[in-house]
Amino acid sequence: MSTPMNRPQTQPEAQEETRKRTIIPASSIWREDGKIMVRVEMPGVTKDDLDVQVEGDTLRITGRRETAPKDAELIVCERRNADYSKTFTLDDSVDRSNIEADMEQGVLTLTLHLKESEKPRKIQVKSG
Question: Which residue has the higher pLDDT, 20 or 57?
Answer without folding.
Answer: 57
